[in-house]
Amino acid sequence: MPVHEFTVQQVADAVNTNAVMLMYAPWCGHCQSFKQPFEEWAQRNPHVTFGQYNADSGGKDLVEKAPLYLSGELRGFPTIYLSTANHGTFVFEGPRTPEALQSVGNALYTN
After folding, report:
1. How far is CA 48 from the centre of its chain?
2. Which sequence spans correspond to the domains of the chain?
């Protein structure tokens, strides 16, 4: 499944569904290097919605324009929110490696 470029409304709609949301900034080198592992993760998990959102404003537009139920704050880039229908939405704090991402994905999104 491809990674979608989310709008503010799509971020709000993805909360408490099976979704992974990447908050990034175009100038962020870490975000750029994380793009390929994120896309690979999305390809391996077609039953989960994957989206990315340009949060270069620090997320202020998310708070101002949409009811935001995301836990935590944007303290740096990239920030990854994991959302499930059963367990809510939270910030992924683990290493940004394909193995770590798949491991948490298996734990959260396996039927």
Report:
1. 11
2. 4-109
